[in-house]
Amino acid sequence: MCIGFGLTLNVAAAGRNIVFTSQNSTERVADADATNDGMQQTLELNFSPENREKLRKALDDYARSVDHGHDQIEERRRAMQESIKVRFLDADSDGDGTIDRQEATERLPQIARHFSQVDTNQDNVISLDELEDAQVRILERRKAAEAAVEAKKLQDADAGAVVIKRKNKQASDNTRKRAL
Asked: Which one of 60, 111, 153, 165 is separated from 130 by 20 to 30 angstroms, measured CA to CA?
């Protein structure tokens, strides 16, 4: 909710952004790249890093107060990060703080299959940070895919509603013609 802030909220759906502007309650659809670039420029020009952090904190506090499941989500996130750390330390058989291809193959076969994508700095070992970053990227892709599916469902539902309205209008027109 953007009451009194004069902020713009972007919602990505089906490769396009829907932009809701709180100042004049208009809705416009813009090209995703142009909107994202413009939004980033707006954030950089209008908000200092300190103000951006304050805004993030305020939004997080608002989410906590409104969303009763927020604490559960945060707890799951912490548990997931702890699980990643435990699995990483278990796989690090030589105790050097990294996992090489051999250790990954022996103890983390799913990571071994995607070793090159997880090893972002291409040093032939995976650090805990690289593993956590990979997990975040996976979750982001999953959320984006789920959002795309939801957007498609909404689009299909809207298209279905238009077809139904058209059929109802045709039926009522035909009824009117018969009555005359």
From this structure: 60
Residues 83 and 20 in one domain: no
Q: Are residues 36 and 92 in the same domain?
A: no
Copy the structure tokens of residue 69.
Answer: 């499941």
What's the length of the chain?
A: 180
Side-chain half-sphere exposure of 30, counting CA atoms within 13 A: 18
**148 in any annotated domain:** yes
98 in the same domain as 53: no
- Retrieve residue 54's tokens: 């304050």
Cβ-contact 94, 83 below 8 angstroms: no
Residue pair 118/105 in contact by the 8 Å Cβ criterion: no
pLDDT in tens, 96-123: 999 999 999 999 888 899 898 899 999 9
Domain range for 54 is: 8-66
- Residue 3: inside a domain: no
How far is the first Cα of the chain from the last one, in angstroms, to the nearest whole number? 52
Q: What is the pTM of this model?
A: 0.45
Tokens of 82: 């702890």
Query: Tens digit of pLDDT for each residue in 42-81?
Result: 555 667 778 888 888 888 777 767 666 777 878 888 888 8
CB 30 within 8 A of CB 17: yes
